[in-house]
Amino acid sequence: MSASTKIEVVVKDACIFFDLIDLRLLSIFYQLPITVITTPQVMAEIIDETQLIEVNFYIESGQLQIDQFGQYDTIGVILDSNARLSFTDASILETALRRNATVLSSDNSLRKESRRQGLKVHGLLWVLEELYNQNFIELELLITKLEEYSKINVWAPKAEIAILIKKYKT
Questions:
Q1: Which of the residues 12, 21, 22, 139 has an alpha carbon 20 to 30 A from that of 54?
Q2: Which one of 3.10.450.50, 2.60.120.10, 3.40.50.1010, 3.30.70.250 gives the CATH number of domain 8-125?
């Protein structure tokens, strides 16, 4: 996404928040030219007080929007047809479908179902590359954060991370 690209709407899951906080990149993330939206169900998953304070700062500043218009009937239909999705995942999918938004998630089941529904899907690696491509972080910091990501999150896609590190080190 170039600087001249139209602002993209992104719906995200709690894992992305946690990873950005742990990588100390949350404030830089909000400099990207995107509108960030989440659901009350995602917010309910943030139970660590320190993390909640950080996330609430972006709600109060208007940089993080909470979509309060979820259609519970639609969420129920999504849940009935996707046993692997949680209620929170279904709320994200419902919001993304209703708003024709990109899903930003690390959850494999949500990512697969979002793609099946025809939505664009990105994960934390996309965020890191966007931060670098749009000059919000330097190459050295990108590589450092890629290395940190595989250490702080046991579910991080280690093979993809290794490929990116090799790509950027050459």
A1: 139
A2: 3.40.50.1010
